[in-house]
Amino acid sequence: MYENNRFMVFWRRKQPQPPVVSCYGKLPATGDFIRLNAAGHENAAFDEWLGSSVAVAKQTLGRAFQQVYEPTLGIFIYRGADGENGDEPERGMVGVWAASGDSAGRHYPMIVSTSYDFEQLVAVGPALPIALWPFITAAYNLVANGRGLAVDDFLTRVAQIQPLLLDSPESAAASYYQWLQHQPMHALWDTVFGSAAGRHAAVYNVQATIEAFREQECPQTPLALHFPIGAGDAYAVAVWMDMTLRLAGWRRTVLNAFWTPQHDLVMHVGPPQVGTFREMISFSGEADYVTDLVCPPNIDERTARDRLGPLAEVVDNVDQSIGVFLTGLNPEVPR
After folding, report:
1. Which residues lie closer than 8 Å to 150 by C-beta, 6 or more apart?
2. What is the rounded CA–CA span in Å between residue 205 and residue 298?
3. Strand, coil or helix: what is 44?
4. Which of 13, 113, 226, 231 is most exposed by smallest CB count within 10 Å?
5. For the whole model, what pTM was predicted?
6. pLDDT digits (tens, 9 = 90+) for 94-115
7. Which domains does the chain have, with CATH numbers?
8. Cβ contacts of residue 185 below 8 Å, gap of 6+?
9. Three-state DSSP class for 118?
């Protein structure tokens, strides 16, 4: 409109696309690749990565592939394909994959997921595993128990899963942040490591891994971290994500996370690598782009504490709440 001979432009924030539950992959009942609601750019990007990554896993594991592949199920958060010139992705995915194949003996996991605008994923942040847990559980139960179904029956079951809305990020994340205030740090260390004895080395290794990319959003790097999660499961995943984001000073980065329930987490700070699927189903400890926090640390506690500088005192206190600990790592990163 024109006012006082000046052109004034009004616009509205782009409305987020609604989440839709999708699936694609192989089922033993058919020789075809099945697909439902999976035509988005994020689906294509994830499919391209997964296909290449499965091929590398088969090549590197050889005859051992079948044995380690068949029992595996996992959960993932995929931020989507980064745009050119460092542009943010448009949409990302949260879902579940399960080892599967077709009647011809070809291997390709079955994926059940839902997609969200990147802005929504950023807004919910590290609380995503908790905020979307009801959907994740429903998808997990289907891929765990439904791979033997006929195609039509499987697709019917997929269509019955309801996606969760993230229109109110504060509400979606509320239960996670409330939980943080009532859980002591020693409970986290005991759950994931068995004790708090190596906590300074753990925090230092995370900090050292991402230090070169501090405050560089959605960095383009192959670097990843391998975390234990144990019985902490989705809550442990959320805390590791939260810790990494705070140490890096990232406000608009969604981490690519792949975890096996009650076991371990492989988390990429940049795009997932072609060798990642192999590390997910049978961790080698040999990938030079992965910092491993599951095995004993490569640095002693005293040295790690010295290198943490002012953060050492934050890590010292195992009786403070996880929420206070995370805030102490970087009070300037709002959550």
Report:
1. 29
2. 9
3. helix
4. 13
5. 0.93
6. 999 999 988 777 889 999 999 9
7. 21-164+172-329 (3.40.1730.10)
8. 196, 199, 317, 318, 319, 320, 321, 322, 325
9. helix
Q: What span, in angstroms and rounded, lies between the C-alpha atoms of 17 and 312?
A: 43
DSSP string, 163-205: PPP-S-HHHHHHHHHHHHTT-BHHHHHHHHHSSSTTHHHHHHH
> With contact defined as beta carbons under 8 Å apart, do 109 and 99 qualify?
yes
Query: What percentage of the chain's residues is helix, strand, coil (to nearest 5)?
Result: 45, 15, 35
Give the C-alpha distances (Å, rounded to integers) separating 167 from 15, 123, 192.
10, 10, 32
Ramachandran assignment for 233, one of left (phi > 0), alpha (psi -120 to 50 degrees), beta (any other) = left
Give the whole-angstrom CA distance, residue 151 versus residue 158: 11
Do 180 and 284 contact (CB within 8 A), yes or no? no
Q: What is the pLDDT of residue 14?
A: 67
The tokens for 176 are 């996670």
* Digit-coded pLDDT (tens) for 269-306: 999 999 999 999 999 988 999 999 999 999 999 999 99
Label residue 156 exposed, middle or buried (CB < 10 Å: 0-12, 13-18, 19+). Answer: exposed
The amino acid present at 188, given as its one-letter code, is L
Measure the CA angle with vertex 94, ends 212 and 75; round to 5°.
85
Instruction: Please check whether residue 19 is in contact with residue 115, taking contact to mean a CB–CB distance below 8 angstroms.
Output: yes
Return the DSSP state at 228. Answer: E
Is the confidence at residue 6, as pLDDT, over 50? no
| C-alpha 5, offset from chain centre | 51
What's the distance, CA 188 to chain centroid?
19
Gyration radius from the chain CA atoms: 21
- Residues counted in the chain: 335
